[in-house]
Amino acid sequence: MNVLEVNSLVLAYLGDTVYENYVRLYLIKKGYNHVKTLQEESLSYVSAKSQATILKKLKDEGVFTESELEVIKRARNAKCNSHPKSCDIITYKEATSFEALFGYLKLQENTERIEEIISKIFTD
Q1: Which candidate, 37, 71, 89, 97, has a CA 20 to 30 Å from the CA of 108?
Q2: Residue 78 banded pLDDT, cuts 50, 70, 90
Q3: For the chain, which residues make up each domain, given as ranges?
Q4: C-alpha angle 9-10-14 in degrees, rounded to nearest 5
Q5: How far apart are CA 80 and CA 91, in angstroms?
Q6: Is-contact 26 20, C-beta < 8 A?
Q7: From CA 38, how far away is CA 89, in angstroms rounded?
Q8: Does 16 qualify as catalytic in the annotation?
Q9: Catalytic residue among 16, 60, 88, 124
Q10: pTM above 0.70, yes or no
Q11: Contacts by 60-66, CB closer than 8 A, 24 or more apart
Q12: Which position has the higher pLDDT, 96 or 77?
């Protein structure tokens, strides 16, 4: 399978679950043990607005490789027919590109790189 030929929105679909799993593990390891609190705390990482903000910060820090930036760009430019009412289309596309990166890395079975990026996100 050539990962670069996978539809960007499919990468984002997979990446959403990969990223959210890391967020959930992180919050549980921090000691949150009530589902309502976990859900509330997770929003600072998994909402479209949060993901777009995190992506911009990581880009500004030069975290991504050229190939990762290509995946991000391709996913951001992918045609999507709708977006949630909770954010504008630009924010949604940035969040989608953030998720697509995790899907891309997962399909490459590059857990080490996923965890490098995750560690930069969860640095308190």
Answers
A1: 89
A2: confident
A3: 3-121
A4: 115
A5: 13
A6: no
A7: 27
A8: yes
A9: 16
A10: yes
A11: 61/120, 63/117, 63/120, 64/101
A12: 96
